[in-house]
Write a structure and sequence with these properties.
The chain has 124 residues and is α+β, with helices and mostly antiparallel strands. The chain has one domain: Roll (Thiol Ester Dehydrase, Chain A). 22% of the residues lie in helices and 40% in strands. The chain has two helices and six strands, in the order ββαββββα. The protein has a six-stranded antiparallel beta sheet, covered by helices on one side. The protein is elongated.
């Protein structure tokens, strides 16, 4: 099914996209499933290092669910790097409603893959 996100890079190495919750994304009637919320945050977080020219994998994703996302809500999803180290990038992301309500936020630890690890991942 896919999320079909159109991600755009921002000037500060950040990334932005928009998403509308549909009935196919429901967990409880009228409410977006938490797994979809987590997937949205993980996806946008992964594009931060990607736009920086790096290949990464999510090592850890911590999600805070703050307010239910309802079917039909148009959401803005943004992410930005908050710490860059030699082998790890920390990325903060959040989902915000059109009314400015923060629906969820996350912190992702993205491991930068070495050439050897990339080759190993492809061979698997």
């Amino acid at each position: 099914m896919g999320l079909h996100l159109k991600l755009q890079q921002q000037d500060d190495n950040g990334v932005i996209t928009y998403f509308v919750c549909e009935h196919k994304h429901e967990g409880w009637p009228g409410i977006q499933h938490g797994g979809i919320t987590s997937a949205l945050l993980d996806e946008i977080s992964g594009y931060v290092p990607n736009f920086m020219g790096l290949v990464t994998m999510t090592a850890e994703l911590t999600v805070s669910y703050l307010d239910p996302i309802r079917v039909g809500e148009r959401l803005e999803i943004i992410a930005r790097p908050v710490r860059v180290r030699r082998r790890l990038i920390d990325v903060e992301a959040q989902i915000v409603s059109e009314k400015g309500i923060v629906k969820a936020r996350s912190l992702a630890k993205m491991v930068i893959l070495t050439n050897a690890r990339r080759e190993f991942a492809v061979l698997q």
